Amino acid sequence: MKKISKRKIFEIIVVLILGLIPLLWFHKNEVILGHDSGLTLFPLPHFLDRLSIWTERFGFGHDQNYALAGFFIHGLEALVSFLGFKLQNFQKIVFVFWFVLPGLTMLYFSSKLEKRLGLKYFALPATLLYMINHFLLQGWLIVERTKFSIYAALPLVMAFLFDWEDKKRSTLKTSILISITLFFLNGEASIPLFGGFIVSIIVFIFFYLYQDFSKRRIFNLFKLSISTLVVSAFINAYWLLPYGSYVLNSYSAAVTQAGGVSGVLGWIDYISRYSSLINLLRLQGVPEWYQNSYHPYSSIFLNNPIIIGISYLIPLGAFLGLLLIKDKKTRKMILFFAVLALLSMVFVGGSHPPFGPLYTFLVSYVPGFIAFRTPFYKFAPALWFSYSVLIGFTISYFLSSLSIKRKTLSNVLLIVFCASVVLYSFPFLNGLFFDYMKPERTMKVNVPQYIYDFGKWSDSKDRINVRTLALPEPNWNIDAYYWGFWSSQSLTSLLTNAQIINENGYMSKDEMVLIQSLHNMMKRNDPGWEKFAKFLGFKSFLLRKDFNWNLSGLTTDPPSMYEAALKSPNLNLVKKFGDWEVYDFKDTNDVQTKIEVTKGISYFPNKIKNLYLLFSTQSVANPKEPIFVPEQESKFENEALKQTNAVYLVSDCVTCDLQRTFVNTGAYLPLLIRDSVFYPIVEFFEKNAEKKVLSTLQKREDKPKFYLYKSLEKLMAVDKGTLLKREVSTITGLFNDYSQTLEKLDLSLNEYFSDQQNIDNDFLVEAFDVLKTERNAYVAIAMRTFEDSRPGGYQPQLLDAVYNQIVKNFASVGNNVWQSTEESKKRFLLSVPLEREYHFIYKPNDQNYTLPGEVNFSIDGKKYSARPEIQSPGWYSLGKYSLPKGNHKFEIEQQSVNLYDGSREFLIAPRLDSLCWVFDKKITGMKDDIFRVTFQHIRLAGSDNLGLSVNYLSGVQQYNGNPFYKSGEAIYPTYNLVNYIYDLVLTENNQNVTFSICGFPSTDETRVSPVVRIEGLNIRKLDIPDLIAYGASANDLTEPVNYTYDKKTSTSYNLNTSAGENDEYAVVLNESFSDNWKINGVGNNRFKANGYANGWIMNGPQKNKEIKYLPQDYVNLGFRITLISLVLTVLAYGVLKLKKL
Amino acid sequence: MKIKIPVTDTYQWIKLNIVKIMFTVFVYAVLAYVVNRPYLNIVRIAVSDLPFLVSYIVALILFRPKKESLLKIALYLLIPGFIFSSLRVEKITNPLGIFIYLMIATYLIFSLKEIKIKK
């Protein structure tokens, strides 16, 4: 057995003692939780949940294949927890482990190098620099165990590679050691975290081949790579198999979710803003230092001249060795690490100049490189690794030289250096870095006992399968509590494996919309919220009164807004845990269970955001009956229609808010116009683009849409040409280009309108806004040319001709679009999939308005009048009408109610004691409600400077009689009667707005008292009513199907049905939709049910039919492969070692 | 009475190399002008500090400095770097960083032949 030297023992002891630094971070009962740490309160159940590829902790269920590779990170935590340690002690143990691990692996590496090069005073400085530094400090902010894992693996793997190069170990043994290292320290298989690792390997390969470029060396390298890949693939099969299938299926979706390549590039620019070379040379540029103005310690490093001075000693220490050290073997290593340092800076710098364009190119064009979207954090380990070694060399040089004559002084200086390394990263000593934004956001929290109690109760047998809705909703997915916890990951997902649903990033857009709808219904105490909750499978509600709803910048609605709904007689307060209250439905018979089997399904071919409306009315939708919500390209639609029970049609009231979409014309301003020498290139690309678009049309509106925006682009070219006063011929050419595009638009619109049944009204509304914008912009451009005195500069005939073309297109769209343009006429468009008799029910959505005794409306232009009957609170039945398949236009009259009921005229005569007129009622409503204020004003007396401020003060803002407290807009009355119009959009729920008109004090020198007359004041809500048309099936599809099911695991269910031999029925698994949910023998007869769940059409009786999440089979297979190959690998290594191969 | 003007090594060096210095500055000025012209500024998307890089290479070719000198200058430049960082003058520290980086990189490139295994 090799004897360990006293110095080495000393070094190990130093590393272990410094490894105890995390113990300084815990005070009293504090634990570290929240932010992005993913630290859990109950590690063992959390770990067990992560062994399953489908988890119910997030949303309506979620694929967590990414979690499998965290087997060792979370397994270690589970093991420590299993031993019975309390949360704080458990965290102390785990933190010390991750703190000391990079130190030990680096000590192994540096000791090897020390021995290989015959150095002294090298290992400890290098180790401490690698173990205690600002990169890791930033990682500890979120206790990034995945990062620490791969960071600790780097020195080990490099040590194995250098040994292999020196032929101290065979290729196979080296492969086994590297594979086993990365088996345990795999960074949770997060490929981007391997950035620094990959750069280090690249430099190693370069050096290996550059030293002696020979076939033998290439072959050796090839052997090592292949054997490492093969061994790694086998022993990591447990996560590689499911992960591989996930990557193949979801890569493009993940890129899209990150905002596409352009979104990623924008993010990289943001992250790289401070990664300048001068910062990187000093091991600075950590993005958080500069971007978080509340950063707990960065200001001292950025502003203190002494600390800045120390930062300049870092590059000096790193590169001075190149000048001082002459020993060839050592110089070779120094060169290796210096090259690694400089190369890693290229990547760490991301898109920052001077190497930014290279990084941008790699992200844009190298497949997979887009994963490295936070370059600093991903590549920095290589930089810190190389600097640690380089500085180690320099320190070793100085102290070794000194020790020849003054050994004691050398040892003292070594200790001083080590102490300096620790002090330079002083926030490690007090845990300051956990205070992300003190005092509101810190990770050091005292968890109230009731949180633990709830977690245990929720994981109990009775509760684990109860779907619960967490209240209130978070804002931007941030879960925050008054007792300190805040994170983008919901607390309940770290507390229990039960399905407690919070809005979070793991949910699909549709799922988010459904949950938001339910939240909104509850906040309004909409009578139908219970039915909708039951439809979504909720049996329980968790009201968290300690939720920090007022978190700065992330305000949401307070828990009290849900109290009215939760006081329903249909709910029971079943348990109270401190500030947490749990309410259950008394009757759960009509709550959708995990698996529902029914003969018929309802059909809802509308926007998912309107689904809740079916339940806001009484006796329309049955919460137990699954609903088929077709997606845009649903292959299943025809199959589902056969099985359709009720058809629900819900249309948005088209443009009832009377707010037009703003078209950003600036975005269409071309870079080059006709007179540019490069314009032929532009033309070439434009023609190609046109050909491509026309040959790949997917929807009917694609063609007119292409020409619509092309025309806007051409108009902007005219704008640019006239603004820059280009040559007359150029401007004429630009007008002609625009005219030609309008011609093409006209033709494509005519073609589009030829089939009236297949018109997308949303597109027409969009086209209407674009053409209106074009028309207005054109008028401004045309007027600009009036002043052009050059011959041919002003061409009235051309201007008229083009204007007529615009008007023609505008009229063409205007005649076909179906939209509300008047306040009192509400228009809806219904797309009917099946001919049926439809029952129309209508909700005016204005508490001040009641439908008159007789209501007038029209369907497809045919006028009807009906006596509305109250169907349920707020809803009126308008009768039943037969509608054939196709689009149908519905229009109804609804007058708005003037909230102002005072005199028709009144005067504003601002004097010092009375400056304002205040509307005595509060304007109140829910978020996004629009109130329109109109009046006429005329100045009767006073100076020309007389002005009024029209104020809209909301919430805590109180009117204080100050006319300059402007929160609306200023108007300047004249001696003519002028109309005033303003749309006030509420920005919060239950917002109260005070409306006032204030006069500015007169500045008239003649001291004539200012007087303004206000006439016809009208304040009303712009109503956006709702309309439902539902048609029941003539066939009876409501007969129940007898079935039973049992849940084996979260990825497997057993289903038994006792339907007749030829009976068809729908089976719905109320877990988030995924193609990977399978039923054997049922092919493509599947659909998305309830807007989020998995549905199948099956027939005949079924016995023990398994519904399973297929990738779990890969996981199970992967674990077997891993276990067998791991045993074989270890055995193989033992044999090779014994035989000294 | 005669006034004796001390003629330093630096002065001599500048006198000898004034043409090279001026040429390097000229290259930088021309390129800085050219890459800011319309259409040609597209080059900056690909290489953001082209004038700087090209004039650095021109200077290397003209002056053929010793690699040790380059490294020494790079390390000496850390002193003004520290001063300007303390004053937070990023307009100077950023190009200085690039300059230091380039000189260290040049040193490494010239030194790489040392690692070749002699057969």
Keywords:
heterodimer; A: 1141 residues; alpha+beta; 5 domains; seven-stranded mixed sheet; 34 helices; B: 119 residues; mainly alpha; 6 helices; globular
Summarize the structure.
The complex is a heterodimer of chains A (1141) and B (119). Chain A has 1141 residues and is of the alpha+beta class.
In words, what does this structure look like?
The complex is a heterodimer of chains A (1141) and B (119). Chain A folds into five domains: 6-32 and 64-434, no CATH class; 457-591, no CATH class; 665-816; 905-1021, Jelly Rolls; 1038-1110, no CATH class. In chain A, 43% of the residues lie in helices and 18% in strands. Chain A contains 34 helices and 39 strands. In chain A, the strands form ten sheets. Chain A has a seven-stranded mixed β-sheet. The two termini of chain A are 19 Å apart. By secondary structure, chain B is mainly alpha-helical. Chain B has helices at residues 9-34, 43-46, 50-63, 67-76, 78-86, 90-111. The mean pLDDT of chain B is 88. Chain B is 71% helix and 0% strand. Chain B folds into two domains: 8-64; 65-119. Chain B contains six helices and no strands. The interface between A and B is large, with 36 and 38 residues.
Give the distance, in angstroms, between the N- and C-terminal Cα atoms of chain A.
19 Å
Low-pLDDT parts of chain B are none
Q: Approximately how much beta-strand content do the residues of chain B carry?
A: under 5%
> How many domains would you count in the coordinates of chain B?
2
Helix content of chain A: 40-55%
Biggest sheet of chain B, open or closed, and with what strands and sense?
none
The coarse silhouette of chain B is globular
> What's the arrangement of strands in the largest beta sheet of chain A?
14-13-15-32-17-21-20
Number of helices of chain B: 6
Structural class of chain B: mainly alpha
Number of helices of chain A: 34
The count of DSSP E runs of length 2 or more, i.e. the number of strands of chain A, is 39
Mean pLDDT of chain B: 88
Q: Specify the biggest β-sheet of chain A.
A: 7 strands, mixed
What is the CA-atom radius of gyration of chain A, in angstroms? 36 Å
Q: What gross morphology of chain A would you assign?
A: globular
Question: What is the tally of beta strands of chain B?
Answer: 0
Number of spatially distinct domains of chain A = 5
| Most extensive interface between two protein chains, with residue counts | A-B, 36 and 38 residues
| DSSP helix fraction of chain B | over 70%
